[in-house]
Write a structure and sequence with these properties.
Elements: E1 2-8, H1 10-22, E2 26-37, E3 40-48, H2 50-62, H3 65-68, E4 70-75, H4 82-90, H5 101-109, H6 116-135, H7 138-147, H8 151-163, H9 166-196, H10 202-206, H11 220-238, H12 244-251, H13 255-266, H14 270-307, E5 313-315, E6 318-320, H15 322-333
Antiparallel strand pairs: 1-3, 1-4, 2-3, 5-6
Keywords: Membrane, Transmembrane, Transmembrane helix
Protein name: Hydrophobic protein (TIGR00271 family)
Transmembrane segments: 116-135, 141-162, 174-200, 220-238, 245-270, 276-297
């Protein structure tokens, strides 16, 4: 469930409240007339189940609230409400399967900025992975996977390609296209510095490395792993269950490959560097393709789910599925079985 805080201009406040009140996926509607000061207007608070959030947000955009007022949404962790239960039953599908496009666009769009923090995290992850490659240490590889922030731009690129947001596509490609070369270059310098300090040497790279040797030997499984990681990562984002595990899942196919490129370049082992570059490109492409296909399948599947609730009726300028309304009316009219 999402909690929405809406600032509606006074001349549109009634239309907003009517729309929210008519939608059975919305509950806990509160109106605070004239409470907003910047921008000025009425404050409307409500909760909406995730299954119906896209329709509500689209209706608010149709009313122009996003331009002359504002809409802020937050996730709701705890809900003790019979009204909220009725809203969930009146909406199609399950909340974990629903894709709230504005939510994922906002969430992933924030990760496309080529910020100093992003570059620092990516560089630190690559340096750690570079040391892990030389030591053939899986524990350090895992540490690098946790630190790596690169799934943000990859997820944003997938969402932007599906919705065709060219500006976000450009920002995502810039974050990846500039971030990885900078991280690799700085990892080359760190490798030379550690070598100069006598902590590492070229023989460590040329030695047998059974744990990390696969990084610079791309094959069909490289694509499979990257693709599966992309599917898992995108599902976690759209279901609002992303966490550190997603970073681990995704980074295993990207940061270690970039680190191996840097270490191989530092020691002039160019065949290994080329293999690592191929591995990195395969993984990046596989993750983006998987993300795009996952979003397309989710969208098509959700359209099929909502089609069962089709034959919409009009409520003012908006359309509501009659089954949603019918279920809501039935639930409201039913006697409270918990009473007494």
């Amino acid at each position: 469930m999402l909690h929405l805080r809406i600032i509606a201009p006074t001349d549109r406040s009634t239309a907003v409240v009517d729309m929210l009140s008519a939608d059975p996926a919305v509950t806990h509607v509160i109106v605070l007339p004239g409470a907003a000061r910047s921008p000025r207007g009425d404050v409307v608070l409500c909760d909406v189940v995730r299954e119906g959030a896209d329709e509500v947000l689209a209706a608010l955009r149709t009313l122009g609230v996003d331009k002359s007022g504002g809409v802020v949404g937050d996730g709701v962790d705890i809900t003790l409400s019979a009204s909220a239960d009725r809203a969930a039953r009146a909406a199609p599908g399950l909340g974990t399967d629903a894709v709230v496009w504005d939510e994922i666009a906002q969430k992933t769009g924030e990760e496309t900025r080529l910020s100093a923090t992003y570059l620092l995290l990516l560089t630190l992850a690559t340096v750690i992975a570079g040391i892990a490659v030389l030591l053939d240490q899986p524990i350090l590889i895992i540490g690098a996977m946790v630190v790596g922030p690169e799934f943000g731009p990859l997820a944003a690129l997938s969402v932007a390609l599906v919705r065709w947001r060219r500006q976000v596509v450009r920002r995502s490609v810039l974050a990846l296209g500039v971030g990885f070369p900078i991280a690799i270059a700085l990892t080359v310098l760190s490798t030379w510095a550690l070598d100069g300090a006598g902590l590492i040497d070229k023989s460590m790279l040329l030695a047998e490395r059974p744990v990390t040797d696969f990084i610079w030997r791309p094959d069909a499984l490289s694509w499979v792993v990257g693709f599966l990681a992309g599917v898992a990562g995108m599902l976690s984002v759209t279901s609002n269950r992303s966490g550190s595990l997603v970073g681990v899942l995704i980074s295993v196919t990207t940061v270690p490959a970039a680190a191996n490129v840097a270490v191989a370049l530092a020691y002039g082992v160019f065949p290994e560097a080329v293999g690592s570059v191929v591995q990195l490109l395969i993984n990046l492409c596989a993750i983006v393709v998987a993300g795009v296909l996952t979003l397309l399948v989710q969208r098509l599947w959700w359209e099929r789910v909502t089609a069962r609730w089709s034959g919409a009726i009009r409520v003012g300028r908006f359309r509501l599925a009659p089954r949603r309304a019918a279920v809501a009316e039935t639930e409201a009219a039913a006697p409270d079985r918990t009473a007494g």
